[in-house]
Request: fold
Amino acid sequence: MWKHTIRCVSASFTHMETYQGKLISSCSEPNPDMVQEGGQRKKPNILVTGTPGTGKTTMCSALAEAIHLRHINIGELVKEKNLHDGWDDELDCYVINEDLVCDELEDTMEEGGNIVDYHGCDFFPVRWFDIVVVLQTDNSVLYDRLSKRGYSESKLSNNFECEIFQVLLEEAKESYPEERVLALKSDTIEDISRNVATLTDWVRNWNSPSSLNL
Ligand SMILES: Nc1ncnc2c1ncn2[C@@H]1O[C@H](COP(=O)(O)OP(=O)(O)O)[C@@H](O)[C@H]1O
Reply:
């Protein structure tokens, strides 16, 4: 149930208009300056995951602006390019087609310099990401945020329980080397600023031997 639930693409995104232009242009125009000789990435790829409402899109947007990386909102991409297998009435979301998503992103990810934003992480190729950030939010705070989205009672409780049982953190730890997984609290505006600062430092130090010692 968990897996199926988090494989769906939520219909309610608060930042769709803002990100759509960026997404289309960024995915369609490979930048040769970002690829080193031999195909090794010049800039890192970051995956930001977590239960819906934990602040992925908000944080990714701020981080992308701060450090000039490309923000890829998988939910938006799936809708924009029809990378799904239709609408699930029961779960009230699109059913993502993971193969189509991975095919769509392969070249972009190879270039590096991407911040990928999605409430799931186990179907991406492990080699794509240099760090996997899992945002976590206190239950009472998350409940308020999700209630404001007008989710159905079942969707609300699915997402709420997903956070209580730390489904995304477990999924990240099972899918990626544990030293690449970083859990960050996302309850307040101050948390967003601190997380952006932490990750900005990490990007600047990327490729140095201590880059994962956060
Ligand atoms: N750390 C935070 N502190 C306060 N409000 C936040 C925080 N993170 C997100 N929000 C708010 O919560 C809502 C959901 O955030 P969003 O970034 O869309 O989450 P997600 O992308 O994980 O679904 C938005 O209204 C956003 O402004």
Notes: Residues 42-73+112-204 form a domain with the Rossmann fold fold (CATH 3.40.50.300). The CA atoms of residues 134 and 170 lie 10 Å apart. The pocket of adenosine-5'-diphosphate is lined by residues 14, 50, 52-58, 145, 186-189, 191-192 (CB under 6 Å).
